[in-house]
Amino acid sequence: MLRGFYTAASGMLAQQRLTDMLTNNLANANTPGFKQDQSSIRDFPQLLLQRMDQQSLPVKDAPSLPSFTQVGSLSTGVYLQETQPKFLQGDLQNTGKKTDLAIVDQGTNSSADSFFTIQGEDGHVRYTRNGNFTLDQNGYLTQDNGLYVLDSNGNKIQLKSDQFTVDNNGNISENGNRVATLGIAYTNKPMSLIKEGDGLYGTVNNAKLPASQNTQFTLNQGFLEASNVDQTQVMTQMLAAYRSFEANQKVLQAYDQSMDKAVNEVGRVNG
Known about the structure:
Layout: H1 2-27, E1 37-38, E2 41-43, E3 47-56, E4 64-74, E5 78-80, E6 84-85, E7 92-94, E8 101-105, E9 114-119, E10 125-128, E11 133-135, E12 141-143, E13 165-166, E14 171-174, E15 177-181, E16 184-186, E17 194-197, E18 200-202, E19 217-221, E20 223-225, H2 231-266
Antiparallel strand pairs: 1-6, 2-5, 3-4, 7-20, 8-19, 9-10, 9-16, 10-18, 11-12, 13-14, 14-15, 17-18
């Protein structure tokens, strides 16, 4: 009976965590460069139940020997696996702003493998697909959160005005003169990146990713990469998670009512 409580409760917890993940995806449906999280619900290892019996040999004064009869398997509940971003290329949105930049990867698998390089608060390099940049009061190219965008040499990019141009290879020019080249990093294992929030990703031990080659990406000025969240799919998944949570809740209530009867009615001693 008590195992049923734990199994139903684990189902409720898994669905609650899944709902939290889906809610975060939906909240970032309009965040440029956002990559939706994905996960799956798995069951814990199952237990094999056996009934212990005793068997006597067909002889006089024979000792009893233990015997085992297989009953079946028993599930011990479920859990939500670790969430991972889904690194697929998002659609491009034309904004017309010169400070908005979007990376389009040239691979055939539609995977988002190239990233802008950003100077993190701790001084180490971070990576992002969000090209919604701006110029601060000193003319440095930054994100909305104030973090600096880096060039191919790992330096901050300072410009005279927002009337600059960026070609498909990431070269930044002012008045026809090239002043910097955007730092674009590449990884063939994006799942190994560490999600840090605000669209930023880090690496294990702050290891730097190699530079992306010109043939691996195309840069588009005046565009933003939209979130790759499929809102219709997320809403459907949220509804399914809610119904599954309700089902586990009703199972838990049924166990609770059964325990109540066992304690207060079945075990009652009539005087």
